[in-house]
Amino acid sequence: QAQLEESGGGLVQAGGSLRLSCAASGKIFRITAMGWYRQAQGKQRELVATISNGGDTNYADSVKGRFAISRDNAKNTVYLQMDSLKPEDTGVYYCKITGQIGTWRSSDYWGQGTQVTVSS
Description:
Helix content is 0%, strand content 59%. The N and C termini lie far apart (40 Å). It is an all-beta fold.
């Protein structure tokens, strides 16, 4: 059974920075894609950034140049460095990991979410 533990959210002023972490645990056979998504109040969940097991990254246009996603495969952890934060970045941030955890079948696993609030 997979467990994802997120950390790093909080309250920050506009222009500030935060770093999110998401660590996967369990009987991990293989992790492929890792990513971050966010959901603002009253809106649908949206992609923020993803990273493949080869290190290829993909970002939402709204965060390009400000956010950086990275991963530590030895620690089964994905990070999101968020700089130059804006009030519109406020929301609950979720990590998603695709892989084979506890089973040879590949599935998507979601974290519990961490609140990021950017004040103006």
